[in-house]
Specification:
Elements lengths: L2 H20 L9 E2 L9 H19 L9 E2 L4 H4 L5 E2 H11 L4 H29 L7 H22 L5 H15 L4 H10 L4 H34 L17 H5 L1 E2 L1 H26 L25 H6 L7 H16 L1 H4 L11 H23 L7 H42 L13 H10 L1
Antiparallel strand pairs: 1-4, 2-3
Helix pairs in contact: 2-5, 2-11, 4-5, 5-6, 5-11, 6-9, 15-16, 16-17
C-alpha cells in the first residue's frame, strides 16, 4: 500500500470515530469530488486562509496600537528627537517596529498579507468569471462574493491611514474627496466619515471601520458565501453542455471525499505554505515606516494610494475625467459585475461559448494592469486624449481580434468533434442490443453549433 493511500485510510478511520461519537454527520460539511483537489478549484479557500491570518495578526497589533493623533514622546523619542513630539498613532507603529519582539515581522506580514489577500481575491474573481461559476444555480453566491470584494477593498482603504503617515494621510484625503463628490450619496457620507472635521475624528472613524464595522460586514457576507457554497457545492468544470453547469458527470458523482479531514488537510497544507512564503518575504523585505503627518520633512511626499487603487488614481489624471465621472464609471463597473449572472444568459460555461463576456473580462484585466503600472510610474501626470487613445486603443483592438479568432477557431473545431461523435454513435450497421445511442445533450450541442 502506498503512503498516500495509507494516510488517507488512517484519516478516514480517525474521523469516522469522531463523527460516530459526536453525531457530526448531521451537520458536517458535505464531501467534494476527488477531481477538485487542484489549486485552481480552491482559490476561494486561499482567500479565506489569507483572511484568517489578517485577523490573527491584526488582533496582535491591536495590543500595542494607539488610534490617537495626540503628540507623545513615550514610544518614539529617538525617532522624532527628544525635544519634539509625534502623533501617538505613528509612534505606536514605530514602537511595534522597533521595540516589540518580532514586531517588524508582524507588522510587515500584516501589510503584505493584506496585499496578498486582495491579489488572491482578484485571482479568485477572474478565475470564476472565466469558467462561468456565476451561472445558475449560483447567481446569489456570485453576488455575495462581489460584495465581499467591495468590503475587502474597503478594509484596505481604511487600514491604510492607521500608521498615520503623511503619504497615507494624503492618499486618504484624495479618496475622501472622490467619495464626498458623489451626487446625493456624498453629502450623506460626509458626517459619517469626517466626524467633527478634525484629524482625530477622521482617524477614529477609519479605525472603527477597519476594526469593527467592516469586519462585521465581512463576517456576515463570508458566512452567507460559505453557506451558499455548501448548498450547491463546488462548480463543475467549464463545459459546452447546457446541463453540465448544474451537475457533475456520472464518474465524478461516484468519487467524492469528505470535507473533514481531506479537504481540511488539503487547505491547511496550502495555508502553511502561504504563511511560510509570507514570513519569508516579510523577513527579506521589511516595510519601512514613512514619516508621520505634520513632519516638515514630508513636504515633498507624492500622494499615491496602495497598488489596488492606483488604476482609479490614474483615471483621474485623464483630461476630461472629473472625480464625479471616475466614481460614476466605477459604480457602473460594480453594477455590471454584481448583475453579471443576469446579463450573461447563456446556459454554457465554457469560455469559447461566451466570446463577448470573455472579451470584457480580458479587457478589464488588461486595463487594470496597465493603469496600475501607469499610475505607479507617473503619478499625478495629466494624460491628453491622444495619449489615452494611443495607449488604450491598441490593447482593446488587439484583444477583440484575438478573442474573435479563437472563438471562430474553437467553434469550427468543436463542431467537427461533435459531428464525429454523433456519427460514431450512429454507426454504419444496424444497432444491436446494448449499443449506446446519442444523448440529448450531444444532440443539442450538435444543433447549437451548426
Amino acid at each position: 500500500m502506498s503512503g498516500a493511500r495509507w494516510f488517507n485510510r488512517s484519516l478516514n478511520r480517525i474521523w469516522g470515530f469522531v463523527e460516530d461519537r459526536t453525531a457530526m454527520r448531521k451537520w458536517g460539511i458535505k464531501p467534494e469530488p476527488a477531481f477538485s483537489f487542484k489549486p485552481s478549484y480552491w482559490t476561494g479557500s486561499f482567500v479565506a486562509v489569507a483572511l484568517s491570518y489578517q485577523v490573527i495578526s491584526g488582533a496582535l497589533l491591536l495590543l500595542y496600537y494607539q488610534p490617537s493623533t495626540n503628540a507623545t514622546l513615550t514610544a518614539c523619542g529617538q525617532a522624532v528627537g527628544t525635544l519634539s513630539t509625534g502623533p501617538a498613532a505613528w509612534c505606536s507603529t514605530y514602537y511595534i517596529v522597533n521595540s516589540v519582539p518580532m514586531g517588524e515581522l508582524l507588522l510587515t506580514s500584516h501589510l503584505y498579507g493584506a496585499y496578498a489577500m486582495i491579489f488572491l481575491m482578484f485571482v479568485h474573481f477572474f478565475r470564476g468569471y472565466y469558467v462561468g461559476v456565476y451561472k445558475a444555480p449560483r447567481e446569489f453566491s456570485w453576488m455575495v462574493g462581489t460584495l465581499l470584494m467591495v468590503v475587502t477593498l474597503g478594509m484596505g482603504f481604511t487600514g491604510y491611514l492607521l500608521p498615520y503617515t503623511q503619504l497615507a494621510y494624503n492618499a486618504t484625503n484624495v479618496g475622501l474627496v472622490l467619495a464626498l463628490r458623489l451626487p446625493t450619496v456624498g453629502p450623506l457620507l460626509g458626517p459619517f466619515i469626517l466626524a467633527d472635521g478634525t484629524s482625530q475624528g477622521l482617524l477614529s472613524r477609519m479605525f472603527d471601520a477597519h476594526v469593527i464595522l467592516l469586519p462585521i460586514a465581512l463576517a456576515g457576507l463570508f458566512y452567507a458565501h460559505f453557506a451558499l457554497f455548501e448548498s450547491h457545492g463546488i462548480a463543475p468544470p467549464a463545459s459546452s453542455d447546457p446541463l453540465q453547469r448544474r451537475r457533475f458527470n456520472e464518474q465524478d458523482e461516484k468519487h467524492h471525499l469528505p470535507f473533514i479531514p481531506h479537504v481540511l488537510v488539503y487547505t491547511i497544507k496550502w495555508g502553511l505554505l502561504y504563511v511560510g512564503i509570507l514570513f519569508g518575504i516579510a523577513a527579506l523585505w521589511p516595510w519601512s515606516l514613512p514619516t508621520y503627518v505634520g513632519n516638515t520633512a514630508a513636504a515633498g511626499v507624492v500622494t499615491e494610494p496602495d497598488w489596488y487603487f492606483l488604476w482609479l488614481f490614474k483615471l483621474i489624471d485623464f483630461q476630461g475625467v472629473t472625480p464625479v465621472i471616475a466614481i460614476a464609471l466605477t459604480n457602473v463597473l460594480l453594477l455590471y459585475v454584481l448583475f453579471l449572472p443576469f446579463l450573461d444568459r447563456s446556459k454554457r460555461t465554457h469560455p469559447r461559448d461566451r466570446p463577448l463576456f470573455i472579451y470584457i473580462a480580458t479587457s478589464l484585466l488588461e486595463f487594470f494592469i496597465l493603469m496600475t503600472v501607469w499610475g505607479g510610474e507617473t503619478p499625478g501626470v495629466q494624460i491628453s486624449p491622444m495619449g489615452i487613445a494611443t495607449t488604450l486603443g491598441p490593447i482593446f483592438a488587439v484583444n477583440a481580434v484575438v478573442v474573435g479568432l479563437f472563438h471562430w477557431r474553437y467553434r469550427r473545431s468543436y463542431a467537427r468533434r461533435l459531428a464525429a461523435r454523433s456519427q460514431s454513435y450512429a454507426g454504419s450497421y444496424p444497432r444491436s442490443v446494448g449499443t449506446p445511442v446519442p444523448s440529448a445533450a450531444v444532440t443539442a450541442e450538435v444543433k447549437s453549433v451548426d
